[in-house]
Amino acid sequence: MEAQGSRRRQLPVLLLWVNGLMMLGSAGARQQTELCNESLMLEKLPACGRSFEEMMKKVDSKKWCNLTEFIMYYDNFTQCTEREANNASCFWPNPLAEGFITGIHKQFFSNCTSEKVHWEDPPDEILITLILIPVMLTCAMITLVVWCSKRSDILV
Fold this sequence. Notes:
The chain is mostly helical and 156 residues long.
């Protein structure tokens, strides 16, 4: 009986908690339906680019392709673009912000193409040798094991 009374007292607390969760969800839905102010975002993003440009002046241009040299600067740039997009009620990343970031990449990292190694098969003579040696060794080992197992006088 006492357990039932305890549950009745806990019910309003549970209902308030559920109501609070629902209000948070509806507030998030309302926030997402705000229209993106693209012009404000495009007005603010260049400040992030200028800041990144100033920070990159501290790095030798020969080291621009080494991410470890400027990772903190790039992280600040990314956070700045995300913050400005969110301040303009825009999702991040979005096509406009991505276009701006791509422009920054072209400005600083256009010479940082990764040189991909083009792998080729070895000449046929080498390939055949590399295939036949393990096959022959396997056959020789099998023959040796079978021959030794038939000669019981060697095992004793």
